Each structure stands twice: as structure tokens, then as C-alpha cells.
Amino acid sequence: MEEVNFSINELIGKDQKLTFLVGAGCSVDAPSRLPAGRPMMDAIIQYTCVESEVEKISRLENLRFEALVEIVRDNIDDDLKIIDYYGECENPNIQHFFLAEMINNGNFVMTTNFDFLIEHALLQIGIPKEELKIIITQKNFEKYNDPENLYARGLKTLYKIHGSKKNLIKGEDTSNTLVATIQAFGSNKEGVNVFQVELFKRDLFENISKNRSFIIMGYSGSDDFDVVPTIKALKNIKNVIWINYIKDDANKAHIFEIDEETLKNYDTISKVNQILADIKRMDFAEHIYRVDVNTSRLIKEMMKTKPPINHNDSEVNPLEWLKINIDKPSKFTKYFIPHKIYLDLGMYDDAMRCAKEMIEISSNTGDLENKSVILSNIGFINYNQSNYEEALEKYHESIQIDEELGLASEKPGSYANIGKIYEEQGKYDEALKSYEHALKIAENLQDDQRKGIYLINMGNTLQNLGEFDESLKKYQTALKLTEKVGDLSAKSKCLNDIGSLYYDKGDINIALKYYLDSLAIDEQLANFPGIAVSYNNIGLIHFDLGDDYEALKWFEKALELTERVGNLTSKAISLNNLALVYQHLKKFEKSLEIYHQSLEIKEKLKIEADKAAVYCNIGGVYFDQEMYTEALNWYKKGLELNKKLKNLPDIAVSLNNIGTVFERQENFSDAIEYYKEATEIFEQLGNQLSISIIMNNIGNSYRVQGDHTKALEYYKNSLEITEKIENHLEKATTLNAIGQLYTGLENYDEALGSYEKALEIYTKYNNLPDKALCLNTIGLINNTIGNPLIAIEKWKEALEISEKLENLEWQVILLNSLSKTYEKQKEFQAALEYFDKLMKVHEILGDLAETATDLSNIANMNNKLGNQVEAIKLYEKALKISDELEEKIQKTKKSKYNNRIGLIYFKQGKYQEALDKFNIAMNFLEEIEFNDSPLATSIKKNISFAQKKLE
Q1: SS3 of 123, please?
Q2: CA distances from residue 785 to 620, 738, 751, 752, 758 in whole angstroms, order as listed
């Protein structure tokens, strides 16, 4: 980032078209002296929170003003009197007069502030009320969405994008706009940016910024969480200019441009620069500037007319004002407000501390209604910490109190939360009953928003049961409800869940379409956690399609986003996905490192169920390295934790994992025992897909033992299940297993029949990795039964896929098969071409030993084509590469290549040269004591033949 060498007037002078976004910092200077967000929050915290929690809450950097106001409103301030504080001041400062002058001159202003100081400034500079339009309500935003056109008609506009208690100019009550804004901001959980630019403001946001410089004033960087989403809704901006307040600027503005270097140093730069870097990444403005300046000093310098400032300070102490105007909170409320703050921010230990105090207070006072609320919240805390039994106990206690008070028919939340616990535990029937009960209450309350949520929950559960048709019906009904109530966040979630359903069915292309639809909504809402979910899901699709590097890109985008917004839960998911790709790429150390980072987050968040899942993932890395003892330790660690949590689905998964280890160790009796134990759990849960997978595992164990009849029985059971639940990709997996069994029995017709059916499925669903593997296997069988031309055709098709996916391991296997088959068919030119391709892949992989072998094979093909001179050159090249290998491999290869050069000389009649090469070859074998090897025997014969020719 470099300081640019031009003046502030060139950026925001009178010849520029400007749009301003104004924050609370503009109202801090005299005479208005309104407190910025944090001082006001400190006053609210001090007044409403128990003394023992004040200091800790005041230090919470991620607590937002609007979130705090919502909690206070719900407990002691129904009418949002707190916002009236900002209306007490009627004395605008120089910044308000500057903005009023900007509006008067045809520039546009949006503000997130709750005061009326810009309105007062507009009136005080003499603009008639009939020329002013203060845009607050939905109707206003829809009617007055083209400020350029309005100014041409003689109307000056001010857009209050967070609503306002009233329209000062017209004298009308607009409190409902403020209630909506506070509600939208209030549910700000850990790391979640919930600010949404409503659809009815879209046209304005497009019109207000077109071909203009966008100036941000009055934001410190710590109160920015609506800035980036607001800017993201704008279009066709010329420049973005952040006025960064500096108290002592030595009478000079310093202008810096955000550049690519700023992006590279993202983690080390200031909060303001990070915000501007985020805006830079959006790439919709020509230039992004930060201006370090004392804002009021700069404005005094720029304003040509002296504004009518009232120099009598109107400062009102916020804490004293609160004591006079806001009802004094009870002892219970003073604990409840910090409890709710902690709860919303995911600080569960702190929330629990306050909850225990409130349980005691409500028990002592006999306040059963409040006791029920707190018991439900304690249940929620336990649920999030994977303490499912304790959570269920508290939810049931809460429901019992509600039933005694006659309130149960108005509170579906506890039933839905119980459903979530049952779902986590794999008790899907119980989960569905709880969701249905919650849905019935929501229907009676005519609460379409909650109905949509509960239908999505039911869809999730039915999906887990493999009942895809019923699940889809729930999702589709929920989708219509989300559209009816205009809940875009819920609509995005629903679209994402439909995508996951098609993903589970193997319809990957349809799944991708729904993920992209969900992503489009979340990008529109600037819902960063939702965007991260979509990034991860899209990455998984690319991973399943075998495009590891494309998957990495999406997972890295998700990780970067979650780190930027501080969402630890989403970060852990992104880390897991990254580790999975590195595991697949056989970069095991990197994979383990990332899994352990994910585990640290789970431990920090105290999410025990997720910890168990990471244990199993780490076990999988060791399993892939054939470190079975270490893998078993991690799998057993996961099983132990899952049993402690009584998490049935994950217990079954852990049992299956342990079974795979025993199978690899050829301890088949133990493997089958664990598989069957896992099957019993999945049968209890009704999870047909998982039963099918384990049936295949059991079948594999019997097949390896040679019990083909038993193996086929399990494979057929698996096949029957996959056809019933219409899981096409799992059906293909089972068909592959049956094909493998018949191949082992040399029943090639049956084997090919199974593989061809699997291939049809992989082709239909564009599953390229499995399609390539299947083509390779079909090629191998055809080659075995004497159909080399069909084999070559299949291998070429598989090679094309592996090249598209940049899978070098597969390319090695396929190029080996093609080159050797062409050689066997005596098509030496074709064989040479494929050996050459194989050598290039080995060079990329850095495999010197195989590169030397490839050169030797290329030399051999040249020899057979009559290019002996070229053949000798290539053998010599292979000899040089061999120098870099370990001794035994080096000398074996040198012996082999010298022997082959000797044979060429022998055929050319150069018997002395041939003998020299044969002797060199034999010496290398003697040095490593391979005198009795088959190669040594062959070389000795060659020496004898050469000697006879020379006699």
C-alpha cells in the first residue's frame, strides 16, 4: 500500500459525483457530542447487567450495538426508548452541515445512524421541508429509489438504511422500520454477519452508486459489520474512499491506495485495511483509498460558507439518561441479559454460570415461567457441548413446567430442540415425532417461518433414513414457505439441503445446481457462513469427481472466509475438508497437521461429538499409510467418546472403521464381528445406506477368505438395498465388488457384465474418477481374455479422464498397460509413444528410478524399430540417471543397461565393444553380490558368446 501524490480535492472536490455512507463517528464532535457505539454500549451494559459480569461483557469485541439493543428491548425496553436518546440532540456539528451541503449540491447520503442531526442541518441551512425526502419505510425505498431523478425534479434525499423512530420532516412515526432493523441485526451469533440488504432496497443501491465515488465516514473499523455487506449491494462504483479519522493529522490529509500488496499482507494489517482489502477483492471499483485525516478539520477547510453551528454543547450522559428513561432491571434480568449475550456469542460456560444464578433466583421467587426459559437455555448449552442426556433432561423439565402453566401449546422450540438431539443420536423415529409435534404447534400459531424450519428438520431426518422422496417433499414444502414469508436465509438453507439430498443420491450435477442457487442467495445477503457452507459443498463435489486441486481451491476459499469473519465452527469444517484432500493426495503429514488444527478448535468449542469425528479422520490417515496399530488407536478413541455421548450413528461408524483395520490385518473373524455390530445399530436406526455399505465390507471379508458363496450373498443384499433406496453410486460400488468376485473366480463374462453396469451408472452421473477405474478394470479383463484391442480402447478412455483430472498415479498405471500391450502386439512405434508419455509423468513425480526404466524401454523400442544409434544414446542417458539412485538399484540398472548396449553392439558385429559392455555389466552385479541372479546368468552367457566370436 502506497501513499498517493494528489490532493483531497481531486478525490472529493466539487467536480466529483459523490455518495456518502455515514456512521456514528460523524456525531461525536461538538456541539452534538453523541457517544459512538462503544461508549453507548458500555453505558447500557453497566445499567442492565449484574456488576460481576460488566467488565467481561464490556471487553467483548464481537458484541454488536444492535444485538445488545435487541436483548435489552426484549427484557426491559419494549418500545425501544433507548433509541430516543439519539433524538435528544438537535445541534448538528460541522460534519452534519457538510453532508447537508453535499445533499443540496446533488450528492447522495445514506446513514446508519439513529439521530436526526443531518435532518436538522438540512433545515438550518434553509432547505424547505417540501424539497426534502427522508427515505425510511419500505414504501419510501420503493417509490424514491432513483436519487438522480429526484434531484433533477428539485428534491433532496436522505436515506436512513437502518430505519428510524420517526420521519422528522413529515412528523410521522416510523418505529416499525427500526424494530425490523434491530430484529435483523440482533441474532448475531459467533462470527455470523446477519446484516441483509432487503430486496426492496436493491434498486436504490444500484442507482445511488452508479459511476460515483463512494465515501465512508464515521466508521472506526470496529463497528464495520454492516459496511462490507452494504457496499457489496452497490453497483458500478468509481472509487471507494474510507475517511479514517486521525485526531492529530498535522493539518494534512494522507491518501493511501489499497493494492495487491495489501491483500498479500492481510493477516498483519489493521482492521480498517482488512475491510478495504475485502472490498478490493470484490473487484467492482476502479480504486480503493484510505484517507488519514481529522475529519472536522478537513471539512472546515473544504466548506466555503460558514455553517450556523450552535456552539452550546448538548452532551447528555448516556448512563444518567438510561437511569431516568429506562425501567430499572430486576435481579433476574441483570443476570439474564449477560446470559443471553454469552449464549448468542457461543460463550457457553459463561452463559451457564449466569443460568445457574437465575435458576436459584426463580426457584426462590417461585417464578416458574422464567425458570422454564432458563431450563430450556441450559438444555441448549448442553446440546451444543454434546451433553445430550443432560440437554434432554433440561428440555423435558422445561416442557413439564410449560404444561403446568398452560404454555406448552405456544412454545414449539423445546420439542424441535429435542428432535435435534434425537437426530444427533440417530434416533430418527423419535426425532420425527418431536419435529411433528413442534410443527403442529407452529401450524396452530400460524407461524409459517417456524413451520418452514421444522419441515427442513424433518427433511434432514428422512434424508438420514434414506427416504429421499419423502425428504424432498418436506424440503419443497419448506421452500414454498420460505418464499412466502420472504426468509431468504431459510430459503438458502433449504436449497442447500435439497442439494445435499441429490448429492447423497449420487445426482451430483443436480446437487451442484442447488448449491450454486444457495450460494447466489447468500452472496446477495452477504451471509458469510452460508457462503462458506456452499464453498465447502461445491468443493466436495469436485473432490468426488476426482478433481483434487479444484476442490482445494473451494475449500481454501471457505477457510479464508471463515477466518475473516471469525466463525470457528465453519473454520473447523473447512480444515477437515482440506485435510481430506491432502490425505487423498497422499500428503499425509500435511493432512495430519490440518486435522489436529481442526481438533484444537473442537476442543476450544467443547464440541465432543465433532472431536470424535476428527479422531476417526486422523485414524483414516494412518489407515491409508498402512499404519494399522496407530489407526486402530484413533478409531477406538473415537468409539470410546461416541459411546460416552451415546451417539449411535457415530458408534456404528467407529465400529465399521475398526472392522476395516482388522480386515486389512487379515483378522477376518474380528472384522466381521465389528461389521455385524455396526449393522445392528444401523438396522435399529433404519439407515439403509449405511447397512448397504457394511454389507459390502462383510462381503469383501468373505471374498478375501475364499468364501465366495457367502460373499455373493452379502453383495446381493447390498445391491437389493441400493436399488430400493435408489442410491445409484452405492449400487455401482456393489456391482464393482461383484465384478471383482467373479474376476477372482475367472468367470470373466459375469465380471464384465457387472463392471459394464457400474460403468453405465458412472457415465450417467458423470462420476469421472470411478468411471476411469472401472474402464481400467474392464480393460484388464479384456486383455486377459485375449481382446487387446478392446483393452486398449478402454485404457485410452480412462487415460483421457485421468489427464483431465490431473491424476498422475492413474496415468502411470494406464500408460504402463498401454505401452506394454502395444509392445506385445509388436506395434513398437505406438509403444514408444506411450513409454515416452510415461517417462514425462515420472519426471513430474520426481521418480528417478522409473524415469531410468522408461528411458530403457524407449531405447528398446528404438532398437526394435532399427534405430540402434538412438537406442544406445537413450541407454547412456538412463545410465547417467542411475548414478543418483541407491547403490543396489543403481548397480542393478547399470548392469542391465550395459548388457543391453552390449547386445546391440553384438548384433552389429562389434564383438569387442559388446564384450566390454558385458564385462562392465557383470562387474556391477559382482559388486552387490548378485552373481547368482537370473540377470547374472544371462550376462555370463553373453560374455561367452562374445568371447567365442573373438577367438
Answers
A1: helix
A2: 37, 18, 12, 11, 20
Sequence-distant (6+) residues with CB within 8 A of 402 are: 372, 408, 411, 414
Give me the pLDDT at residue 509, please. 84
* Closest to 499 measured CA to CA, from 515, 488, 484: 515
**pLDDT value of residue 835:** 97
Nearest to 698 by CA among 663, 658, 740, 650: 663
Unique residue bearing C-alpha cell 443501491: 205
Give the whole-angstrom CA distance, residue 779 versus residue 794. 5
Cα(679)–Cα(688) distance, integer angstroms: 10
Enumerate residues 6+ apart whose C-beta is below 8 A from 92.
Answer: 32, 100, 117, 118, 120, 121, 124, 309
Cα(602)–Cα(595) distance, integer angstroms: 11
Q: Which three cell numbers stand for residue 597?
A: 488444527
| C-alpha distances out from residue 798 to 558, 709, 763, 769, Å | 31, 32, 12, 9
pLDDT of residue 199: 67
The mean of the pLDDT values for the chain is: 90
pLDDT of residue 805: 83
Alpha-helical segments (H) within 283-408: 295-302, 318-325, 331-344, 348-365, 368-384, 388-405
Mind listing the pLDDT tens digit for each residue in 905-930?
999 999 999 999 999 999 999 999 88
Cα-Cα-Cα-Cα dihedral sign, residues 336, 341, 345, 349: negative
CA–CA distances in Å: residue 389 to residues 94, 144, 384, 412, 589: 61, 55, 12, 20, 37
Q: Which of 189, 35, 22 is nearest to 121 (CA)?
A: 22
Grid cell 424432498 in the structure block, residue: 472
Q: What angle do CA 297, 223, 267 make, to 5 degrees?
A: 100
Residues 219 and 38: their CA atoms lie apart, in Å, by: 12
Q: Which helix (H) or strand (E) holds 892?
A: helix 887-907
Q: Which residues pair with 167 in a beta bridge?
A: 172
Length, in residues, of the chain: 951
Q: Which region among 180-184, 595-599, 628-632, 929-933 has the lowest average model confidence (pLDDT)?
A: 180-184
Residue keyed to cell 498483519:
268
Residue type, 210: K
Residue 77 has φ and ψ, to the nearest 5°, of: -140, 60
Tell me if 67 sits within 8 A of 346, measured CB to CB. no
Sign of CA dihedral 646, 652, 656, 657: negative
- Confidence bin at 12 (pLDDT 50/70/90): confident
Q: List the 18-22 sheet strands across, edge first.
A: 2-3, 254-257, 285-293, 237-245, 213-217, 18-22, 108-111, 156-160, 132-135
- 286 is written with which cell numbers? 476502479
Class of residue 469 by CB neighbours under 10 A (exposed 0-12, middle 13-18, buried 19+):
exposed
Q: How many CA atoms lie within 13 A of 768 on its CB side?
A: 20
Least confident of 128-132, 226-230, 296-300: 226-230
| CB 526 within 8 Å of CB 196 | yes
15 or 624: whose pLDDT is higher? 624
Distance CA 96, CA 113 (A): 12
The pLDDT of residue 120 is: 96
Model confidence at 769: pLDDT above 50: yes
Contact 291, 11 (CB under 8 A): yes
**Cα separation, 195 vs 188, whole angstroms:** 9
C-beta separation of 417 from 373 below 8 A: no
CA torsion 539-545-550-555 (nearest 10°) is: 20
pLDDT recorded at residue 943 = 95
Is 544:767 a contact under the CB 8 Å cutoff? yes
From CA 83, how far away is CA 95, in angstroms rounded? 21
